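Allow me, if you will, to draw on your knowledge of protein folds for a short while. Thank you for your consideration; the sequence and its tokens are set out here:
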Amino acid sequence: MKLKCFYTNANSVVGKMSELKLRAQGFDIIGVVETWATADINDAELAIEGYNMFRVDRSGRKGGGLIMYIDDKLKSSVCADMMKSKFEESLWCTIEAEDGKFLIGLCYRSPSSDASNDECLLKLLRKTANTRGILHFMIMGDFNFPDIDYEHGIVGTSTNTAAAKFFDEIQDLFFCTACACSYSTPRGPATIDTRLCLHR
């Protein structure tokens, strides 16, 4: 089964739902990070017709938040085991198909993420790769590692940094970078939003 995916960093999805609905037409899976949604915003305000919606709001401080929309023709549900992770912001769902089960993850790593949270992210990647009974994996997310050049396989920092450890981990786990979104810095182009795929 082939699935079409759309991913975006909304930087507040509230007030942008009309645009999101237009841009997301024809996709099976839609991942949105930095929704900035709170408990005061009900599901109806964020719903997209024809999709099951799964959301996680950041609590305690502004920003963050995740939403995953999955075509309601697909049999999808929250993956409770993966949701037990101590990594600050992630959302996990499974899709059951005739040829097997798909695991879809959506993650947001803040630029201010501390060493403990970064280690939790690495553990989460390992857990993903070692999950049994899964045909395909996909993780979409904004990991905020601008020093990683995925195209050329280069990390512009020392080996003991969070960026280097993250890059080494995805290489060791045989994750392939399916897509990368670039932006400009004074040093040149960099990449922060990365969709990772692991096929097994």
Notes: The helical segments are 17-23, 43-46, 115-129, 162-172. The first helix runs from residue 17 to 23. The chain has one domain: 5-199.
